[in-house]
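Task: sequence design from structure.
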């Protein structure tokens, strides 16, 4: 099994009952697509996200109705709620008062010092952090003037500008994102940010696109950053159902050994030796294990020639044989099962192993 790349050292920052930073964990988050003041629709979407494995959820807060809705939403969900605010400090104060677990606001955009102080004091009183969201597309005018166009150095300078405002008020519960839709720019910006300060980093490639292309683009960018040991929480931004963002994030973190509570499917690519309908079986098994919260590795292989040996690291698996399947564990065949029942047999064994792992 490959070793994980340990996270660079960052401060731990509490968000509700979770901690971002200070460990190897990368917390998965997403953002709702509903109108936040439509509490019923927002809660329903958050519940679907929770079930998919979302650990923190963010809602937009463009007006007071949305800020006041935080209370009712919070009462009905189980994961920390982040409220996304642009400029308006009053909305931030209402959201904090109504139970936000974290706010996303750039202190440099709030305006007069008294307003910034009011927000910071409210966060201090409730013990909630602030995420500074640096975005290549909306850098401050003086930074664009200095660098000519959005650069990684300009993004880091912007982050440090907002950080200083908070630090001057003795506020350190800070998380920073350095989003860009250009993958290379994002990689450079996050790499430089990790060297420039030790606040936890929220990873994301912004406006990455539709399900397929956005997944590829986000995985390419975030993969490069994660491989450097950078990043403490991530959001995959897709023009799709946000549940898809969670699926992609889980899969990406699994690929780096960074998801300690998710099962993985190993499936062969198939070739001329195939003996079973592998693609539909693989999809069925993948769906079945998607809700498991243990690091079980399951393999589904088209034939027994290279099968069990190819998937030695799997805890359990099946390999197709003519008219039957071979059930194997850790590379060793344990028994033969008829083709018609092999998926059910595999599921039963998966349940047993998952239960054992949960009880360990
Ligand atoms: Fe081909 Fe068998 Fe390997 Fe699948 S497991 S790729 S069917 S040899």
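Answer:
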């Amino acid at each position: 099994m490959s070793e994980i790349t340990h996270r660079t050292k960052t401060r731990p920052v509490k968000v509700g009952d979770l901690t971002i930073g200070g460990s190897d964990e990368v917390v998965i988050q997403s953002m709702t697509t509903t109108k936040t003041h439509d509490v019923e629709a927002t809660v329903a979407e958050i519940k679907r996200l929770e079930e998919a494995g979302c650990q923190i959820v963010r809602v937009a807060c463009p007006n007071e109705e949305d800020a006041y809705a935080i209370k009712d939403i919070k009462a009905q969900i189980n994961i920390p709620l982040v409220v996304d605010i642009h400029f308006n400090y009053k909305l931030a104060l209402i959201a904090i008062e109504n139970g936000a677990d974290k706010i996303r606001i750039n202190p440099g955009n709030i305006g007069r010092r008294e307003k910034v102080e009011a927000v910071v004091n409210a966060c201090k009183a409730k013990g909630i952090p602030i995420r500074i969201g640096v975005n290549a597309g909306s850098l401050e005018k003086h930074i664009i003037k200095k660098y000519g166009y959005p650069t990684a150095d300009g993004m880091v300078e912007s982050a440090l500008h907002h950080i200083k405002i908070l630090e001057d008020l003795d506020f350190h519960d800070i998380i920073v994102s350095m989003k860009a839709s250009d993958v290379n720019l994002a990689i450079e910006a996050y790499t430089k940010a990790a060297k420039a300060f030790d606040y936890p980093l929220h990873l994301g490639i912004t406006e990455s696109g539709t399900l397929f292309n956005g997944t590829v683009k986000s995985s390419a960018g975030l993969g490069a950053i994660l491989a450097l040991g950078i990043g403490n929480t991530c959001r995959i931004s897709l023009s799709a159902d946000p549940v898809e963002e969670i699926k992609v994030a889980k899969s990406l973190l699994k690929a780096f050994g960074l998801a300690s509570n998710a099962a993985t499917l190993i499936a062969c690519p198939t070739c001329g030796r195939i003996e079973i309908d592998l693609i539909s079986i693989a999809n069925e098994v993948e769906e079945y294990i998607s809700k498991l919260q243990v690091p079980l590795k399951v393999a589904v292989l088209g034939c027994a020639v290279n099968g069990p040996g190819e998937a030695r690291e799997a805890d359990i698996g099946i390999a197709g044989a003519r008219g039957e399947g071979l059930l194997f564990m850790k590379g060793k065949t344990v028994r033969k099962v008829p083709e018609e029942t092999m998926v059910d047999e595999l599921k039963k064994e998966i349940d047993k192993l998952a239960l054992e792992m949960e009880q360990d």
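The radius of gyration is 23 Å.
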